[in-house]
Design brief:
The protein has 385 residues and is of the alpha+beta class. It has a single domain, classed as FAD/NAD(P)-binding domain, CATH 3.50.50. Helix content is 34%, strand content 30%. α1 runs parallel beside α4 and α7 runs antiparallel to α8. The longest helix is centred in the last third of the chain and has 29 residues. The chain is globular. Bound molecules: flavin-adenine dinucleotide. Flavin-adenine dinucleotide binds next to α1, β2, β9 and α7. Flavin-adenine dinucleotide (FAD) binds next to α1, β2, β9 and α7.
Length: 385
């Protein structure tokens, strides 16, 4: 493999966009095919962890994120309505001893502008990948754009096309997992709390409430529900928050509402021949704890580093790709366990004395330092260095 060859990326969400920028920086010629004509403004993820900021720092884009996002330096834990402790990120490794909160569309906008500034024309929008065929030396990618079918040949394809990944299905990679019983509603409201840039978590006997600051004096509220509510109304979330926390959002304007269930799925392998998978295409974990997108960026960096190594040692490409699968799969399994722990703490049936004591203990030193490390995804990643 040499650096003049093509790598096609299927999917331009946060993971595909970051991968495209890194590949260009490493001197590869790549094309990103993205189905959507423009970035979707519906806000999903918001948490950007220090492990990702370290990657962004290497890419030279960390400052843009830090400037546009809210820097969360502390989380406050409540038991029902009583404050039971705080988790500070201050003692996490500097300089990124905080978590950023930025709506996903803003994250994607920063990444898209960055890729465009590195090499205009890399991102092809309105292009849906529909077929992939592989030979020993290349991969042929068919996509639909403007009502016509086009084909592109490359050395490798990286599927960053999300949880319903067509790349994964076309490569024949099994994706196993299950939905969890947990369901939530979330909404963004103008911020009328006194939390400032702090996050707040309420472990309540009727179910978890999470509250995160957002840029523009907004705040994201997430509430655990009994069952999936597909189209929740703002009034319903206002009532739940007031009943569980005592905080009234009556005068707060609502700009976004959604309901979601959570799942855990994992690809058997993260590659098949010349097709590799990164991000949600390879693993879906519960968003409680906010790790999914960050996990995808760790995949993307590892994937780019594998291509760099393969360019120097072409005969080792198969071994390197296998290493990618082994390490990233292990990281995804770890992250999924952390997310399961977060969900377990927030379940109604777990609102008894044991969980109260556990929550109380982990917000006290030295366990709070450990929890801060776990929450900020420390210990996951960077095996490729
Ligand atoms: C409510 C909620 C809150 C979350 N909060 C957080 C959080 O705070 N922090 C965090 O780290 N994660 C969070 N997540 C998870 C996070 O949103 C995902 O892990 C992340 O979006 C995955 O990025 P991705 O690029 O792998 O996939 P996606 O974001 O799904 O992007 C895939 C892209 O591929 C495109 N595509 C699909 N099929 C094709 C095709 N055939 N051809 C071309 N393009 C295609 C799609 O249009 C899309 O743009 C949250 C998720 C949810 C649901």
């Amino acid at each position: 493999m040499n650096k003049d060859v093509n790598i096609v990326i299927a999917g331009g969400g946060p993971v595909g966009l970051f991968l495209a920028g890194r590949l260009i920086q490493f001197g590869f010629h790549c094309t990103l095919l993205e189905n959507k004509p423009k970035i979707d403004r519906h806000s999903k993820s918001l948490g950007i962890h220090p492990v990702s900021l370290e990657l962004f720092n290497r890419a030279g884009i960390a400052d843009q994120f830090i400037e546009q996002a809210i820097n969360i330096r502390r989380g406050i834990a409540f038991w029902n309505r009583d404050k039971i402790g705080e988790i500070s990120f201050a003692r996490c490794p500097k300089p990124f001893n905080f978590v950023l909160a930025l709506p996903q569309w803003q994250t994607e906008t920063i990444l898209e502008n960055w890729v465009h500034s590195l090499r205009p024309g890399t991102i092809v929008r309105g292009a849906e990948v529909t077929n992939i065929t592989q030979s020993d030396h290349s991969v042929s990618v068919t996509y639909h754009q403007h009502n016509s079918e086009k084909t592109m040949t490359a050395d490798f394809l990286v599927g960053c096309d999300g949880k319903n990944s067509n790349a994964r299905k076309l490569a024949g990679i099994p994706f196993n997992g299950k939905p969890y019983p947990d369901t939530y509603i979330m909404g963004d409201f103008t911020d009328n709390t006194r939390f400032g840039t702090d996050a707040a978590v309420y472990l309540h006997h009727d179910g978890l409430i999470e509250s995160f600051p957002l840029p523009g004096n907004m705040r994201r509220w997430v509430a655990k529900t009994e069952s999936l509510i597909e189209e929740p109304k703002a009034e319903m979330l206002r009532q739940i928050i007031e009943q569980r926390t005592g905080h009234s959002l009556t005068t707060s304007e609502n700009v976004m509402m959604s309901g979601f269930g959570v799942q855990h799925y994992l690809a058997d392998v993260f590659h098949s021949g010349r097709v590799l998978l990164s991000g949600d295409a390879a693993h879906v974990i519960s968003p409680i704890g906010g790790q999914g997108m960050n996990l995808g960026w760790l995949d993307a960096e590892a994937c780019a580093q594998i291509f760099v190594k393969a360019a120097d040692r072409p005969s080792e490409i198969s071994r390197l790709i296998k290493t990618y699968t082994t390490h990233q799969k292990k990281i995804a399994i770890h992250a999924a366990k952390r997310a399961e722990m977060n969900m377990w703490l927030g379940r109604k049936e777990n609102s008894g004395f044991t969980v109260k004591m556990a929550a109380h203990l982990i917000t006290k030193k030295p366990l709070s330092h450990l929890l801060a490390r776990v929450f900020t995804m420390r210990g996951l990643g960077s095996w490729w260095i």
